[in-house]
Write a structure and sequence with these properties.
Shape: elongated
Helix content: 10-25%
CATH superfamily of the largest domain: Outer membrane lipoprotein wza domain like
Radius of gyration: 22 Å
Distance between the termini: 35 Å
CATH topology of the largest domain: Outer membrane lipoprotein wza fold like
Strand content: 25-35%
Largest sheet: 5 strands, mixed
Order of helices and strands: HEEEEEEHEEEHEEE
Structural class: alpha+beta
Number of helices: 3
CATH architecture of the largest domain: Roll
């Protein structure tokens, strides 16, 4: 009988395998989709502020655009085209002459290339275009915080900073890990992360309620 109990226990432990994510180890049940989040710093947008210790700031070329972002587009020698544009709900930027240009999932460099190609087809012989992020899309924080809702993204922020912006935890909040949802590789992924994990624009943070 003791041998049988040991065998059953081993089988249960074998079924509770942990899934490895870059920078984290998370139980299988914590993931809603197979696409993992990057390790801290791998896809973190650049900004004027300093990054948390151990979180490198990398160029905007790695940050992909989506609805809610505002971008400054400069077409050299074309003042009527050079201005700040919003990425609309369909993930597009509406510009004079060329109309709507798809921006969702593109880096600033890729969007500049798309705009230049469209302008070159009919309007400008050799357009020179640059794109930079003017304002990042907001993040969302829900659950056991005092003021859940949508907030403006701040460069180089962590989950802890996001909680502070939402005026802190409630008395019932779990304070070591939160549930974070992010679009990564074209797929919405949800994973449990520690409170020092870096937040990106568009992230949804959910602070869970503790049982005891």
């Amino acid at each position: 009988m003791a041998f049988l109990l040991l065998a059953v226990s081993a089988a249960c432990l074998g079924g509770c395998k942990m899934r490895s994510i870059p920078g984290l180890t998370t139980p299988d049940f914590a993931l809603s989709t197979p696409a993992p989040l990057p390790a801290p710093g791998e896809a973190f947008p650049a900004g004027a502020g300093s990054s948390p210790p151990g979180v490198p700031v990398i160029p905007n070329e790695t940050y992909t655009l989506d609805s809610g972002d505002k971008v400054r587009i400069i077409v050299f020698g074309q003042d009527n085209l050079s201005r700040v544009y919003s990425v609309d709900g369909s993930g597009r930027v509406a510009m004079p002459l060329i109309g709507a240009v798809s921006a969702r999932g593109l880096t600033t460099f890729e969007l500049a290339s798309e705009i230049a190609a469209d302008l070159k087809q009919k309007y400008i012989k050799d357009p020179k275009v640059t794109v930079e992020v003017e304002t990042y899309r907001p993040f969302f924080i829900l659950g056991e915080v005092n003021k859940p809702g949508q907030y403006a993204y701040v460069n180089a922020m962590s989950v802890e900073a996001a909680v502070a912006i939402a005026e802190g935890y409630t008395e019932r909040a779990k304070q070591r890990f939160v549930r974070l949802t992010r679009r990564f590789g074209g797929v919405m992924s949800t994973v449990m992360v520690p409170t020092d994990y870096p937040v990106q624009p568009g992230d949804t943070i959910y602070v869970l309620e503790r049982i005891f």
